[in-house]
Design brief:
- The protein is mainly β and 276 residues long.
- The chain has 2 domains: 122 residues, Roll (Pnp Oxidase, Chain A); 73 residues.
- The chain contains 3 helices and 16 strands.
- The strands form 2 sheets. Strands 3-4-2-1-7-8-9-6-5 form a 9-stranded mixed beta sheet.
- The radius of gyration is 24 Å and the shape is globular.
- The termini are far apart.
């Protein structure tokens, strides 16, 4: 018997890996012989806990490389774990587990992927808790700010700078955090907490949150998996989730999704005190 894993990424790409020493074709999918592929025991409980399984291996496959893992292309991929009799595939499969990939850790030429069972869906929180900051994301269906419009220094003035810009990266630092585009003339802080999305090359389709922006240069919170020099991008302004920013910069206070004046738990739970 051999153990097989079928992986379906969020971009629709399908991959198969097995513990066998040669390629297996089953149900139209090629299951590569993955060197160093080692699934651990499955931890199962009877209290609606999430099934936990870790797969460890060597980054030796052309389909599975460190750059793609660090880029997040495998995040939230669906998996199906089963066993086959490699000598007689007509016997069918023994189903083990199904779920989604969790945390993936990469260390040089090795990787470890957490595989979460179907009970993971029941850990999702439904509803919201109150917060002083806005819980909507800039430009989404609840925020409703038109990112193609533009911003101005004061409410009611004509837009002077577009919320969304396009350009090409002139230079990218060797640390993969910092990059620059000399065509950017927006003021310091304009794209803080914004999002940059790349449009071509190896970075195509990947989006990263902007940490800090100064005129013509900015840094991101997590390192890029590839060199960004010469890559086309689109980038939109950010929001710090404060009521004042929503009112003064975006003129959108009607859609603010926070409770800045709500007293905190400590104040609500406080008992009366008498002066001695």
């Amino acid at each position: 018997m051999v153990t097989c894993i079928l992986l379906v990424r969020t971009d629709g790409q399908v991959y198969g890996f097995s513990t066998h020493d040669r390629l297996i074709r089953y149900n139209g999918v090629d299951y590569e012989a993955a060197a160093g592929f080692n699934p651990t025991d499955i931890a199962v409980a009877n209290q609606m806990d999430v099934d936990n399984l870790t797969v460890e291996g060597v980054l030796s496959s052309n389909s599975l490389n460190e750059d793609d893992l660090r880029a997040g292309r495998w995040d939230f991929a669906e998996f199906r774990l089963f066993q086959l009799n490699w000598a007689d595939l007509t016997m069918g499969e023994k189903k083990d587990r199904k779920g989604t990939l969790g945390q993936v850790i990469v260390d040089r030429s090795l990787f470890a992927a957490e595989m979460l069972g179907m009970m993971q869906a029941y850990t999702t929180s439904i509803g919201e808790i109150t917060s002083p900051g806005c819980r909507a994301n800039l430009g989404d269906s609840r925020c409703q700010v038109n990112l193609q419009y533009g911003g101005s220094p004061s409410v009611g003035s004509p837009p002077t700078t577009a919320f969304t810009v396009n350009g090409v990266i002139d230079t990218a630092a060797a640390d993969f955090f910092n990059m620059a585009d000399s065509a950017r003339v927006e003021p310091d802080g304009y794209f803080d907490n914004g999002v940059i999305t790349f449009l071509d090359g190896q970075l195509e389709g990947l989006a990263f949150e902007v940490k800090t922006y100064t005129i013509g240069a900015w840094s991101v919170f997590v390192p890029l998996p590839y060199d960004a020099t010469g890559r086309a991008y689109t980038m939109h302004a950010g929001c710090d989730k404060r009521l004042e920013t929503c009112r003064d910069r975006f003129n959108n206070v009607d859609n603010f999704r926070g409770e800045p004046w709500l007293r905190g738990t400590d104040a609500l739970m406080q008992i009366g005190r008498h002066n001695s």
